[in-house]
Design goal:
By secondary structure, the protein is mainly β. Helices cover 15% and strands 41% of the residues.
Length: 260
């Protein structure tokens, strides 16, 4: 197996081709999404899709829960719910989501990180190792000097827009901790459908705490990347979604304000 050096520091492994097994419910290398981030911006926090159903389409991903009750992060076949107090627990199949993005994670690249990488440096490394116009699933296992996280709070009707709900999120900082960042790099053209750029959630190694990753510095770690060549979106049929006005200005600013 030949080895390619990236920026003189990161070794890439030989790509592994994806397969479609007989009777499987998913397309190889496909990103599966329910609803739109734009719908969350409009305060549409209730969906009919259960995590039991979602699990048929992926074993890795991120999202949220009905009533905006925390953040979801999933990898290695298990989904976790991270509540507004930063605590985490396993998701049950009957829980429902208004927005989630999943895939069957089959990495085609592995990168050993230089020591002491910060958020900006990590982003540059990922951008150099991936294609800007494709979706990429990202899993980072490492020892973190610090991770700043926040988690959405459960909302009550009438639901506020996501930008307003995000204003009340408390920031929690983890220091000298081992854990996992998981999520996606999405192309610029996906903004509004999803979150363009890096969107990562963190969970501590013991799977008891975590949140939406805002800022981080990694002492040491390894990245696994999976390029995704398909994108499938299931749109809601609820009255709230069908009547929502998505012709809004400042979409990019609103997503950045709510997602960090």
């Amino acid at each position: 197996m030949s080895e390619i050096t990236l920026e003189g520091s990161l070794a890439l492994v030989k790509p592994a081709w994806h397969h479609l097994t007989p009777g499987s419910d998913h397309a190889a290398g496909e990103l599966y999404q329910t609803s739109l981030i734009s719908a969350l911006l409009e305060g549409i926090y209730e969906g009919d899709v259960t995590y039991g159903e979602l699990r048929k389409h992926g074993d890795f991903g991120l999202g949220t829960f009905n009533q905006l009750d925390g953040e979801m992060v999933g990898f290695d076949g298990t989904f976790y719910q991270i509540r507004s107090d930063g605590s985490a627990r396993r998701v049950t199949p009957d829980q429902k989501t208004p927005f989630a993005v999943v895939t069957f994670f089959e990495p085609d690249k592995e990168l050993e990180l230089p020591q002491g990488v910060n958020q900006e440096e990590l982003q540059s490394l990922i951008e150099a190792a991936t294609d800007a116009n494709l979706f990429t699933a990202i899993k980072i296992d490492g020892i973190f000097a610090e991770v700043d996280t926040r988690t959405v709070q459960q909302q009550k009707k009438p639901y506020p827009p996501l930008t307003d709900a995000a204003k009340h999120q408390a920031v929690k900082t983890f220091r000298d901790v081992q854990g996992t960042l998981a999520g996606f790099r999405s192309p610029p053209y996906a903004q509004g459908i999803g979150v363009a750029g890096l969107h990562l959630h963190f969970i501590r190694e013991d799977k008891q705490a975590g949140g939406h990753a805002l800022n981080y510095r990694i002492r040491s770690g390894r990245i696994q990347l999976a390029a995704l060549h398909g994108f499938h979106v299931e749109l809601p049929t609820s009255a709230a979604f069908l009547k929502a006005n998505f012709e809004q200005s400042g979409l990019d600013d609103k997503i950045k304000a709510s997602e960090g």
